[in-house]
Specification:
The radius of gyration is 51 Å and the shape is flat. A hairpin with a 7-residue loop joins β10 and β11. The chain has helices at 2-25, 31-53, and strands at 96-101, 107-109, 114-123, 134-140, 148-150, 160-168, 174-183, 189-190, 199-205, 215-225, 233-244, 248-256, 265-270, 274-285, 291-302, 306-307, 311-315. The strands form four sheets. Strands 2, 4, 5, 7, 8 and 9 form a six-stranded mixed beta sheet that branches. Strands 12, 13, 15, 16 and 17 form a five-stranded antiparallel beta sheet that branches. The chain has three domains: 2-51; 88-205, Immunoglobulin-like, CATH 2.60.40; 215-315, ApaG domain (Immunoglobulin-like, Sandwich), CATH 2.60.40.1470. The chain has 318 residues and is mainly beta. It has two helices and 17 strands.
Length: 318
């Protein structure tokens, strides 16, 4: 296209030149105007030539640093809560019982006081628990402890292992409960007893300078000697276990259904929260009247009067 423009310009110049020459021959004196026109025509020709002959510069695109977008990953399905089986789904290995424990329920501590809770756990399974088993926090208040502990030692079937955790009383007054479970190496969590219940610590935090300690419970155990049969003499022994929530000295009295309370008085001094067991016997001779309503019981008489349920038993020999 540029070549066509160039050719047209040249032809225009030639025609103009011949016309000018003809005009000069006619005696018309317009030399300055003609010169100017010719000069402008030549300039236009040169500009067109340069525009045609000079290649257009190559367009350089600016280098752009790519923007990195970090996508927010949204799960297609919301994550489910951790599966926490509370059964023997882990097999025969997930079976235990609680033999005894320290730090009775309701023990009173000062805010921030450190204490050690110990559970005596018996392996009632057919497996050896190795140190791959865990002690895991279940619910409640962790009481300043960790959430997971390794079982401290291997424990065979029928053996009992002490599980002791160092815990800390919260800084705020109140009642707190910390529940724990065992965990097999394959992740099955289990507790103690037939219901696989968590074992726990339950404490009270108080800022009082002299907390009102008390007897918190009495548990009975009745033992018959001999266990069966109708010998000449049958002895029933009732064991009463008192539990206190702190250091306490208290007095108690035995009573029984026949009205006999002779030699039934006693005093117990506890230097710390804990349990103490006392006992009382009732002997029956062969031929005593059968009775399903015999009972014995203890009553706390001081410093605060407290009655507790009775321990009943049956004698049916004649």
């Amino acid at each position: 296209m540029f070549k066509l423009i160039k050719s047209n310009l040249i032809n225009t110049i030639l025609v103009t030149t011949f016309l000018v020459a003809a005009c000069n021959g006619a005696g018309t004196s317009n030399d300055p105007f003609i010169a100017t026109a010719v000069a402008q025509t030549v300039a236009a020709q040169n500009a067109a030539s340069q525009a045609t002959d000079t290649p257009a510069p190559t367009q350089t695109q600016a280098t752009q640093t790519p923007v990195q977008f970090i996508p927010t990953l949204t799960p297609l399905v919301p994550p489910a809560s951790p599966t926490r089986p509370i059964s023997n789904s882990g097999g025969a290995c997930a079976s235990a019982s609680l033999s005894s424990e320290t730090v009775p329920d309701g023990t009173i501590y000062k805010p921030g006081q450190v204490f050690t809770k110990t559970w005596q756990i018996t392996n009632t399974s057919t497996c050896v628990w190795n140190t791959g088993y865990k002690i895991v926090f279940w619910s409640g208040d962790v009481l300043g402890g960790a959430y997971v502990y390794d079982l401290p030692q291997a424990t065979g079937p029928g053996a009992t292992i002490p599980i002791a955790l160092v815990l800390t009383a919260p800084l705020t007054e109140g009642t707190y409960k910390s529940e724990w479970m065992l965990q097999t190496p394959d992740g099955t969590e289990f507790g103690v007893g037939s219901y696989s219940a968590p074992f726990y610590a339950k404490i009270v935090v108080s800022t009082a300078e002299a907390p009102e300690y008390s007897v918190t419970s009495v548990v009975y155990d009745v033992v018959r000697t001999p266990a069966t049969g109708c010998p000449t003499n049958t002895t029933y022994t009732v064991y009463a276990t008192f539990t206190t929530n702190g250091p306490l000295e208290f007095s108690y009295l035995w009573t029984q259904s026949d009205g006999n309370s002779q030699d039934g008085k006693g005093t117990i001094k506890m230097t710390a929260a804990g349990s103490k067991t006392v006992s009382r016997e009732w002997k029956l001779h062969l031929g005593a009247s059968p009775n399903d309503n015999r009972w014995m019981a203890v009553t706390v008489t001081s410093p605060v009067y407290m009655e507790f349920p009775r321990a009943g038993f049956s004698y049916n020999c004649q």
